[in-house]
Amino acid sequence: DAYNLPWQALKHARKHAGTATVGGYCTDFPTVYVEHTLRDWKWPGEGVAKWAGRVAYRYCKRLYSKFDAVYAMSEHGGGKRLRELGIGRVHRMHRGVDRHTFHPDRRSDEKRALVGADPDTPLFIYVGRLDQEKGADLVVDAFTRLPKDLGARLIMFGDGPLRDEIDAMGREFPVRACGYVADRAKLAEWQASADLFLSGMAHETFGISTLEAQACGLPVVGVRAGAMIDRVPPEAGSLAEPGDPEALKDAILHVWNGDREAMSRNARALAESFSWDAAMSRLFDKIYPAAFRRAAARAKIAGVQPSVGALSMIERAG
Question: The whole model's pTM is what?
Fold first, then answer.
């Protein structure tokens, strides 16, 4: 909620000097929820949609400039944008991945057989909502352009408005909508049993599904935008221009015909560095103390003594 809860927190901080506030930029809502929604409605027109997106970013600037500390989940998925808006206190905080649950050892030929893939069949996987925002339509479009003699199959996990359309395509192409899987261990088995992870999302702020796929040792093919720029280096996959199914198809073939074993090792190595311990250490040792320092300075001006907990955290951080 970018419109109600933050203002309640800031209101509380104004009433209680010494209270620190931290804002996380976890969704690119001006583009995804404002501009894209109006564009999908069609009747306001492209110009109105872009104007509304600009207004929403101005709102972003107003909101995030009031926090004592701000963090983004990745450089290209929020950090760069916030600095362009004039927000100077932008920290980086990544999420973690369960590297034991999401692991290459979960690969299963039995799982592959359930979707008609033998050990040598190219099996590609998509995980996310089945909608245009997540680029599910782009992934399907690119997949249907692949050479028929490749014999590839695409399994898509998630639910959304494109589910029926994808189900219908399954009668003509080897595409299967498998529904939403809540059990993380079962999802990890499917991830590890595939050969490539595909994504069409251009506005990821972090890309947790991508990271989980990498933890399973999958090379990733996505679009050159948002957090995917940070998440997928050339040695672990390939990125295409956003919204271009032909380019995404070429990127898929580039990875499939490349050194996939090396890309798989590199993908797993990347995921190894994203532990929850490191993420929480960043939050409690860097971001929170930075916020408390600013709050303590405000409290001093107001003649209020900061809390013992705040002073302890500041002292521990140095």
Answer: 0.90
